[in-house]
Structure formats: structure tokens, C-alpha cells
Amino acid sequence: MFRCPLRIGFIYTGWMELLKHLKKTYVLLFITALFLCLVLTLKMPSTYKSNPKPSGPPSACSMRISEQTITPLNNTKHLLVSAYMDQRVKDFDIRIIGIFRRDSIQPLHCFFCCAGYLSETTPATILQHPDNFGFPFVTTDVMCQIPQNCSATHVTLLTTPDKQSPSNHPWLPIRNKDTVGQKEENMQFDFTICISNLFGDYNNVLQFAQTLEMYKLLGVNRVVIYNTSCGPELDRLLQSYSDEGFVEMVPWPIDKHLNPSRGWLHSEHGGDVHYFGQLTTLNECIYRSMERSRYVLLNDIDEILMPYQHKDLMSLMNTLRNQHPNTGVFLIENHTYPKKLFNQSKSGPLPQWNGVPGFDIMVHIYREEPNRNIYHPHKLIVQPRAVQQTSVHDVLKMSGAKFKVPPDVCRIIHSPISTPTNPPLDQLHVDTRLWDFKDKLLPNVIKVLQRAELLRSETQN
Ligand SMILES: *[C@@H]1O[C@H](CO)[C@@H](O)[C@H](O)[C@H]1NC(C)=O
Ligand SMILES: *[C@@H]1O[C@H](CO)[C@@H](O)[C@H](O)[C@H]1NC(C)=O
Ligand SMILES: *[C@@H]1O[C@H](CO)[C@@H](O)[C@H](O)[C@H]1NC(C)=O
Ligand SMILES: *[C@@H]1O[C@H](CO)[C@@H](O)[C@H](O)[C@H]1NC(C)=O
Ligand SMILES: *[C@@H]1O[C@H](CO)[C@@H](O)[C@H](O)[C@H]1NC(C)=O
After folding, report:
1. Transmembrane segments in this chain: where (predicted)?
2. How far apart are CA 45 and CA 287, in angstroms?
3. Is 213 left (phi over 0), alpha (psi -120 to 50) or beta?
């Protein structure tokens, strides 16, 4: 909490006498300072409040619990991200998600902190994900079995099977311990969107605000964003969404540990790991959501998974689930909406967003017809508990069936910043589906930009 240093002014008992002897200007200054102090004290955001640590029972490994999202594993080249209870695979209890160096995989041993004592070690099973796109580091699951009678709270990995001093190792808390037997209807959220990897000085504020407000109108409850870095105005917008609770910012300092690639193919783009570790964050987000969200959408911020026959995602999913009851993964077709060909005369009265960085998604109304003769990528709506491993455009390991959703039911409105192709107009379709939400969307966008103090008053027409 912010402490006002001028409070001692009140303690000085002879202050009235003192004031009398001071010149008017000093009195004014003093009063102004007091006023400022008061305002500051009242306005200090809640982030300054001390965060009480969750206090569980005292545990044998409390000395070095990792508070980081990326934790280097001692004596190896690997990075650990998080540990989740996962008993869907026979003989295993725990899945540790990590980023492993492919050319230096060695045997590992799971070491547990049980309530009150340290366990014996159990052998770990290392499962590299099949998608590595040629990069030296790959998303890797380490599967562990909890020893008998151990009520495990934390886990770490050792390079030798011998029990060791707990203080030398980074302990990961074990999450999702309540997933077993949990009913889908009781979950906190219906829809979570996982936005993997914000990086560079990305500052497309208008696109972010419009897209996040669009997600809200479609029924999304939580947007998880893995943040390596971003531009100053976008930072302000996201802080504001994060205070509100709609956005969950996960720090993702991958550049402190590796040389992350900005591309998806090692032979073309170089670097240590695919696209700032996108494959790892997508998997992490699915596990993070498993206990609390009925559905998870894996898409980028320049994409909106848009129902064309339903008013929102829940009515869409209710229909799809009725038609395809055993389906855990729904594939949604990508459709690009290039910006260049926007026709002003068709736009109607869209507001001018003077001074707000970024572009207006509402002007992307021309849809490219995809060439279905070549590979055509999808994005995913999944039930997290049906998925074990995922990639960007498809899941790698799952239970249940997959269904390709027809594009007239749901498709992606994809408004990229730059569009490589410039197809002739007769190959484009006018699609103003976004405008159906305009009357609700635009006031909400104005509100959120005002809240983050990103909108100049003269632009609110
Ligand atoms: C686990 O606990 C049960 C009951 O207290 C005991 O009989 C058993 O020997 C224990 N097993 C191990 C491996 O400690
Ligand atoms: C593991 O790494 C941490 C942090 O770098 C260090 O403090 C600790 O002593 C290391 N432990 C071992 C066993 O090397
Ligand atoms: C994103 O990460 C950068 C770098 O750590 C940080 O400066 C910024 O405040 C973060 N933004 C949010 C909204 O968390
Ligand atoms: C723009 O819209 C107007 C009126 O609807 C139409 O006459 C014109 O052909 C359109 N131009 C393009 C490039 O779509
Ligand atoms: C999406 O589809 C368009 C064609 O509609 C294609 O040109 C583009 O490369 C695709 N984008 C991605 C990221 O798959």
C-alpha cells in the first residue's frame, strides 16, 4: 500500500502555529501536496496490495518452489513449464510439460514432495511431441507415477535415481488435482481462448480491443495470453482487461532462456524453438483450462471463430454436440479477409479511431475463397479433457472423434496485418457478419478504450 510521507504533518502538534508564520504560497503548496497525497493513496491500484501466499500445510520442499512459468532443470539443457495431475494414461499420474533439447535427452527420475515428507524416486517416461519442425527444442511431456501412499503436492525431476536434498531442485506445484470426477456442467467457464505468444513490440490496440469485445459477445469467459513482450499502449489495454479478470496474462520470458524463432520452420527461420514456443503454450493452456473450462479455442488474436447460423458459441456448440455426441475436437476452416480491398462506400458510418494504434477489423469485409486443392489449415475448438497433446492446426493425441465443421456453420474471420496475395475482386465474397454485432460492439470498444485512457474525447462520435 502506498504510504503518504506527509502524514507526519499531523503528528507535529504545533503545526497551526507554524503555519501562521509561513507565507501564503507555502501554505498553498502544503495543502496541494496533502491533497495529491490523499488522491494517490485512494487511487493506488490493487496490484500494490501485498499478495498473501496461499498457505497450505508446511511441506518438506517449501524451500525452492518455482514461481516462474519457465524453470531451467538443473544439470540438463531442458526447461520445465508446469506439472498437472493426469490419470488418463494407464500407469501414470502426473504430466510435466516442458521444452526439451532433442539431442540431449537423458533418463530422468520423478521426485515428489508428499504432504510432510520426500518420496523415493520413480522412473520418468519422456514423450517428445511429434511436431518439432526441425527445431533443436521440442515440447515434451514427462510422465510420472506417484509412489504409494504419497499425497503429492510438488514434483521435480532428477538425473539420478538417488533421493537428494530438496533445496537443490526447483519444485513445481501439482495442479488440476480436482479434475477427477468433476462434472462438466459445474465448470467455472464455458469458453476459454488461448492466445499463444505475444512478442516483439506488437501494439495493435484497436484490433485487440475489438477482437476481445467480439469474443465477449460470442460468450467467451476467459482469454489466456502468453506474453513475452508488447508495445506500450497494448500493455495498458491488457493491464486493464487483466484487472477486470477477462484476460489472464501469463508471463512467457522464453527469450531469457532460448533464442526463439519468429517463424514456424527451422530450415527457413532458424532459432531454437518454433514460434516463441507456441506449441508449448497451446498445450499448457489446454491443461490450465482442463479443470475450469468446458471448451477451449486455439486461435490467434487476428482470428475470430464466428458462428454463421447461431447467435453465439454456446448455441453453436449445443447444436454440434447434439449432432456429434462423441466428438472432442471441432476443426474450423480458416478464411482470410484481406484489408486492401475495403470499399469505403460500403462501410456505412463506422467511427474514426484517431490516435488509437492498430487497425479496424470492421473494414475487413472481403473474404478470400480458399483453394481447397492445396492443404487448407484449420483452427480448433476442443473439449480440454479429450486432448492429450496438440499442435496448432490439429491435435496430436486425443480420445473421441474429430469433426470438420462446415464453413457455412462456423468459420474463421482471419484479418491478417499483411495479406500476401491480392486476388481479383471476382474471387472475393462480401461478408459483413461482424457488422451484425456493430451496435453492441462499438460502444463496448469505446468504453474499454476509455477505461484504459487510450481514447481521446473528440474521437467518441
Ligand atoms: C501404504 O500404507 C498402507 C496402510 O497404512 C501400508 O499397509 C503399506 O505398507 C504402505 N505402503 C508403502 C509402500 O509404504
Ligand atoms: C540448481 O540451480 C539453482 C539455480 O540456478 C541453484 O541455486 C542450485 O544450487 C542448483 N542445484 C544443483 C544441485 O546444481
Ligand atoms: C508483457 O510482458 C512485458 C515483458 O515482461 C511486460 O513489460 C508487460 O508489462 C507485460 N504486459 C502485461 C499486460 O502483462
Ligand atoms: C464499392 O461499392 C459501390 C456501391 O456499393 C459499388 O458501386 C462499387 O463497384 C464498389 N467497388 C468495389 C471496388 O467493390
Ligand atoms: C488461411 O486461408 C487463406 C485462404 O483463404 C490462405 O491464403 C492463408 O495462407 C491461410 N492462413 C493460414 C495461417 O493458414
Report:
1. 26-44
2. 31
3. alpha
Own/partner long-range contacts of 249-252 (Cβ < 8 Å, ≥24 apart): 249/225, 250/69, 250/224, 250/225, 250/226, 250/281, 250/284, 251/68, 251/69, 251/227, 252/69, 252/70, 252/197, 252/198, 252/226, 252/227, 252/228, 252/276, 252/277, 252/281
pLDDT at 344: 57
CA of 334 to the centre of ligand 3 (A): 29
Is 76 touching ligand 2 by the criterion CB < 6 Å?
A: no
Q: Determine the topology of domain 184-343+353-459 in CATH.
A: Spore Coat Polysaccharide Biosynthesis Protein SpsA; Chain A (3.90.550)
Which residue's CA is the nearest one to ligand 3's atom 14? 249
Atom of ligand 2 nearest to the CA of 164: 13
Nearest-atom number in ligand 2 for the CA of 165 is: 13
Domain 71-175 has CATH 2.60.40: yes
Q: For residue 375, report the distance from its CA to the centre of ligand 5, in Å.
A: 10
Ligand 5 atom having least distance to the Cα of 335: 5
| Ligand 2 contact, 168 CB (< 6 A) | yes
Considering every ligand atom shown, identify the ligand nearest to the alpha carbon of residue 421 and give its number: 5
* Per-residue pLDDT at 438: 93
- The pLDDT tens digits of the residues spanning 52-99 come to 344 444 556 766 889 899 999 999 999 999 999 999 999 999 999 999
The predicted structure's pLDDT at residue 217? 98
Shortest CA distance to 392 belongs to which of 139, 181, 90, 151?
139
User: 339 near 362, Cβ under 8 Å?
Assistant: no
| pLDDT at res. 427 | 79
- Give me the residue spans of the domains in the chain: 71-175, 184-343+353-459
Using 50, 70 and 90 to split pLDDT, how confident is the model at 384? very high
Same fold, 71-175 and 184-343+353-459: no
At 404-423, the pLDDT tens digits run 999 999 999 998 866 656 67
